[in-house]
Design a protein that fits this description.
The radius of gyration is 17 Å and the shape is globular. The protein is about 75% helix and about 0% strand. The mean pLDDT is about 95.
Length: about 170
């Protein structure tokens, strides 16, 4: 029953019905307070809704050392992506700056961050990797750190992540 409930919540979230998905995740958490899959599902929705304080509360429920701890911590990076994107003027403005000056690594980083904030992780990884190829030490490794956060968020077996971990390692070392 728990797996059916979680599947239903994921389907609702994918369909864009965040409120209904949140309600199902909350119901599952009430039923099983340590269900980290439900906790993380609800936290992802709260990130999309901009309820960052609630995300922090939810993440604190995931114990260090648990199999989902890295995913929980990666959601903090997702909050960072959203905030950085907002501070940079949003996706459209960042895209315009990059189009205007494709060699501007700051514009590329901001665009990649906005892509990640909007769940376009394939684009974000591509752009951050371009930065690492051009300048390994860009912003003290900010592009590398952002990529690693996405690896944790999606999991290394996700098709979007693909061979980026190996490519990143080869480029850096």
């Amino acid at each position: 029953e728990a797996e059916e409930r979680l599947s239903e919540a994921r389907d609702l979230a994918e369909a864009g019905d965040l409120e209904a998905a949140a309600a199902v995740f909350e119901s599952q958490i009430e039923e099983s307070k340590e269900d980290t899959e439900a906790i993380l599902g609800l936290a992802r929705i709260r990130v999309k809704q901009g309820h960052f304080d609630q995300v922090n509360e939810l993440i604190q429920k995931v114990e260090p050392g648990s199999s989902d701890y890295d995913k929980a911590q990666a959601l903090l990076a997702q909050i960072g992506f959203v905030r950085t994107c907002q501070d940079s003027g949003g996706l459209e403005q960042c895209q315009a700056r990059l189009t205007e000056d494709p060699d501007n690594l700051d514009a590329r980083f901001d665009f990649a961050t906005c892509a990640a904030a909007n769940d376009d992780f394939a684009m974000a990884l591509k752009e951050w990797f371009t930065i690492v190829e051009r300048d390994k030490g860009f912003r003290n490794g900010a592009a590398k750190d952002a990529m690693v956060a996405v690896f944790r968020l999606l999991g290394r077996h996700n098709e979007i992540v693909a061979d980026y971990p190996q490519r990143l390692h080869r480029t850096l070392y």
